[in-house]
Amino acid sequence: MIVANRKTLEEILTMLKPYKKILLLGCNECVTVCATGGEREVGVLASEIKLSRAKEGQEIEVREQTLERQCDHEYIDQVRPFVGDYEAILSIACGAGIQYVAEKYRNKVVLPGVNTTFLGVTLEQGVWSERCQGCGECVLHLTGGVCPIARCAKSLLNGPCGGSSNGKCEVDKELECAWQLIVDRLKELNQMDKYEEIIPIKDWTTSRDGGPRKRIREDLRL
Amino acid sequence: MKTKSNIERILESGQLVVTSECGPPRGADAEVIKKKGKLLQGVVDAVNVTDNQTSVVRMSSLSACLILKEMGFDPILQMVCRDRNRIAIQSDILGAAALGINNILCLTGDHQKFGDHPKAKNVFDMDSIQMIHTVKTMRDEGKFLGGEEIKGKPILFIGAAENPFADPFEIRAARLGKKAKAGVQFLQTQCIYNMARFEKWMEMVRDRGLHERVGILAGVTPFKSVGMARYMKNSVPGMDVPDEMIERLKGVAKEKQSEEGIRICVETIQKLKQIPGVRGIHIMAIEWEEKVREIAEAAGLLPRPELA
Amino acid sequence: MRLSYPTNVKIVKVPCTGRVDILLILKAFESGVDGVYLAGCLEGECHFLRGNLRAKKRVQYVKTLLDEVGLGAGRVEIYNMSSAQGQRFSEVAREMTEKIRALGPSPAKKKVRA
Ligand code: SF4
Ligand code: SF4
Domain map of chain B by residue range? Predict the structure, then answer.
């Protein structure tokens, strides 16, 4: 899923300063699962905003709405009937959702209520961890199913740097060294011979470095 | 392809190579380099010039290399993957060769988190093994990574570093194997304090026959004090300082600790010289260049061979 | 046993403190209350096993929200008592009332009304 963190209330209030009527948009997908931008968080944030304004003696109208998805226009369209009643939209979906809303309502100010951070998994209730960087050319088959691009602090493709120590990364003693994980897994799989092969210098055109990416499935197009 | 590298020539003659390093200053003052250089004259065969070591901004390695070159040294250009993409790396390789630099040391580089600009974006377009391969392709095939032909090949002797004390230990020799396959010719190790582990690593290296393909220079760093030893043990990633070494330093009076540190270093070199496959010594006296001569002298590494 | 407790305390009955959602507490503050406290069963004696423990965590979380908003964490509390402890119930009601009185009216309420 896409994992995001809520911006601080202070940042959000600063962005909202000029507005008295806002539409607060959540999303039912990833940001719901990572407890950042779902219906509950929409409710909590709306409440925080109203309370803060009330404290300052100012009123603010916050309409709460959580869309099935903010990355699909048919759901974004659902707010069209009343979006005109609001001065600004505060979205707490991922960066993609926020932008898509902005794209669909061109004359509305759309503000980000979250910082979108990574593609990851739920390690346990309340703990999420990065797994993939969307590099566009997956090498997991070569690295025991552990991603060296996203999980090694230096995105090394041919083995651990000299800072790997007791399974931890040199960057942070709390962080697992991706290459320790890769080697452990290759051993478990009896695939250590894979480690001997040099992985050639990566073609980054498939990644963000090649410019923003687009995917087209011609057969699905209408 | 023969280069003009002193390291290559001395390795070939079968003698022990001695190298040391020189960290460029945090400023534009060439005198600092010259001063450090003077301390190493006649003591080493080649001198490493670090590349923004520990991610702290310093004078560029290439510039400092040139200053040392003009003093008669054979500098080793250190280059890390952290700050350059393949365009900049290849460009600097050409530049170094054009300036008469004979050696390059291909390194991953410390993460920027440790330095003075932790907010920087890192590059890591390639890793150190791929960098070795890049230099080799440019030199031996006369081609850029993009496939185009190079007019005027960069004739560089290719080096790398390896840390026998990092984990996972069992693949450390395999990693050197990959470097050898990529084309590395000499290797400098991380500072050696844990002799048992180093010997174990060398055994794995010899089992793979890597000591015959790569000139291995064993790294040493003298302790200035017990405080420094403790710092290295606890705060430098991938550093293995056994407790008995700290005990030994603790056992002598404070003002004698640096002397003891030098003594440990000399003893270490003597042991290293006996290990089959060790072809040279790399003395890294961090901000203590004035001691390199004393150490080399005491360890019987002087005088250095005369090269035509 | 007829014990009195301060009249400013409005009781909202729930089947279990585990039913009390973060939003429920925030809504109470939005509607203008000065403080909220939960009276839950004794720890280890929840009829639904962990309801009161969940409530405790939620109260902790609401405290951080109230601090962030600037109302102050002290405006929300959880107390544990058994249904047989009428005496304790009225004590707690008084204690909380005093505590909130010391904090003064909710800044959110005061300004909206003004
Ligand atoms: S290799 Fe690329 S696509 Fe595969 S998990 Fe890593 S970042 Fe994602
Ligand atoms: S310690 Fe491991 S994860 Fe961290 S940068 Fe080095 S190889 Fe990558």
Answer: 6-223+275-298
Domain ranges of chain C: 21-103
Q: Look over chain A and give the mean of its residue pLDDT values, rounded to a whole number.
A: 96
Query: Is the Cβ pair A162, B108 closer than 8 Å?
Result: yes
Paired strand residues for C95:
none
Looking up tokens 């194997």 gives B177
Is the bond preceding residue B303 a cis peptide, omega within 30 degrees?
yes
Domain boundaries, chain A: 2-118, 133-204
Rounded CA separation A146/B114 (Å) = 25
Answer whether B133's CB lies under 8 Å from B90's CB.
Answer: no
Q: Is the beta carbon of A147 within 6 A of some atom in ligand 1?
A: yes
Question: Which amino acids bring their CB within 6 angstroms of ligand 2?
Answer: A 152-154, 156, 160-161, 163-164, 169-171, 177-179
The structure tokens listed for B240 are 């293995």
Radius of gyration of chain A (CA): 22
CA atoms within 13 A on the CB side of A212: 1
What tokens appear for C70 in the block?
């600037």
Report helix, strand or coil for A17.
coil
Res C111: pLDDT: 61
Query: What phi, psi does A173 have (nearest 5°)?
Result: -65, -15
B98 contacts: CB under 8 Å, gap ≥ 6: B152, B154
Give the position of tokens 């911006």.
Answer: A7
Which of chain C's residues have a Cβ under 8 Å away from the Cβ of A57? 111-112, 114
User: For residue B304, which of B19, B113, B99 has the smallest C-alpha distance?
Assistant: B19
Specify the pLDDT at position B238.
84
Backbone angles phi, psi at C97, to 5 degrees: -60, -45
Q: Give the β-pairing of A114-124 and A127-132.
A: antiparallel
Beta bridge partners of A25: A65, A91
Over residues C5-49, the pLDDT tens digits come to 888 999 999 999 999 999 999 999 999 999 999 999 999 999 999
Tell me if B286 sits within 8 A of B50, measured CB to CB. Answer: no
pLDDT at A24: 98
- H or E element that contains B19: strand B17-22
Banded model confidence at residue A218, pLDDT cuts 50, 70, 90: confident
* pLDDT on residue C114: 46
Closest Cβ opposite residue B178 in set A166, A170, A198: A198
Confidence of residue C109 (pLDDT cuts 50, 70, 90): confident
Average pLDDT over residues A2-26: 98
* Separation CA A9–CA A15 (nearest Å): 10
Beta-sheet strands, E only, within A125-212 = 127-132, 168-169, 172-176
ipTM: 0.93
CA distance A189 to chain C (A): 42
pLDDT tens string B147-195? 999 999 999 999 999 999 999 999 999 999 999 999 999 999 999 999 9
Q: B17-22 and B278-283 as β-strands: parallel, antiparallel, unpaired?
A: parallel
With respect to CATH, is domain A2-118 assigned 3.30.70.360? Answer: no
pLDDT band of residue C1 (cuts 50, 70, 90) is low
Q: Does residue A121 sit at the C interface (CB-CB below 8 Å)?
A: no
Q: Which CATH class is domain B6-223+275-298?
A: alpha beta
Torsions phi, psi of B25, nearest 5? -75, 165
